[in-house]
Write a structure and sequence with these properties.
By secondary structure, the chain is mainly α. Helices cover about 70% and strands about 0% of the residues. Helix 1 runs parallel beside helix 8.
Length: about 280
């Protein structure tokens, strides 16, 4: 890709980041301003896709190119990785925090793994919200940064922005649910999101489709709260302990996610992705 096209990708990326962060932080401030509006916080998940769809429509003026992130052919490796990685990660985290004495095992909640299977309505709503994130983060921003600057630069850039994007939501919910040390929780969760952005990026790079990351995201959002607790609502899961330490989006997630981050950077150093809209 020549310098002119690279600069264009960077400009669109910066525009996307600016609009998404300002809009999200403003909406979060409104949502957490009163108990009556807190229930609306989840709508921030739609903001990245809305902004990305508008920018792509202006940039491409082609329905085919606008929706290429979801129409690109996927492969078996991307699906298997997106299914197995989050499940194995959550299972490993549960064993790790138990062995380290950070959490106790609540056998009475094991049935939740089976009985709390999502309904069709929950699956549809979940994937709509997850599309709101994945089209923006992986389908737009990661694609643009990786094409302009390389895979590692793109993944790190998205990780930083994605983490900052989470901050007002995590902090607002921590205050609303009266968690101790809401600022500490926010800092730890932001760090975990950054680390976890690497396997999400890898999931996307395997096929250049957002379908695998969406599957990855759905499984994570479903089973991390069931097993390790809901860090957003301060609800314990099967493993009982300090949620800041034991959650997949807590300290345990950072520690166990670092090996993949190091591997990803080593494997993708100086690698780029081809321009996919030609």
């Amino acid at each position: 890709m020549n310098n002119m096209l690279k600069n264009k990708e960077i400009k669109y990326s910066l525009l996307f980041i600016t609009i998404v962060l300002i809009t999200t932080w403003s909406f979060a401030f409104y949502a957490f301003s009163s108990p009556e509006t807190v229930r609306l916080y989840f709508l921030v998940m739609l903001i990245p896709a809305i902004v990305a769809l508008i920018l792509n429509s202006i940039r491409y003026r082609s329905i085919r190119l606008v929706f290429r992130p979801i129409t690109t052919r996927i492969n078996l490796k991307s699906i298997l990785f997106s299914l197995l990685y989050p499940l194995l990660f959550i299972g490993t985290a549960a064993i790790f925090v138990f062995i380290m004495g950070l959490a106790e095992f609540d056998k009475d909640k094991v049935s939740n793994l089976i009985t709390q299977l999502p309904s069709i309505e929950m699956i549809i709503a979940g994937f709509i919200l997850i599309f709101g994130e994945e089209y923006g983060w992986r389908g737009f921003l990661l694609k643009a940064l990786a094409e302009a600057k390389g895979k590692v630069y793109g993944a790190i850039g998205v990780g930083v922005v994605w983490a900052v994007w989470h901050a007002p939501i995590v902090y607002g919910l921590a205050k609303f649910t009266h968690m101790k040390n809401p600022l500490l929780l926010t800092v730890v969760q932001v760090g975990a999101v950054f680390v976890f952005s690497m396997p999400f990026a890898y999931s996307y790079f395997l096929s250049k489709s957002i379908i695998p990351p969406m599957l990855f995201h759905f499984i994570w959002n479903l089973y991390n709260p069931i097993v390790l607790g809901n860090i957003y609502r301060n609800h314990p899961g099967i493993m009982i302990g300090n949620i800041i330490y034991i959650n997949g989006e807590g300290l345990a997630g950072i520690i166990l996610g670092l090996p993949f981050l190091i591997w990803f950077i080593a494997q993708n150093k100086n690698k780029t992705i081809g321009k996919s809209n030609r």
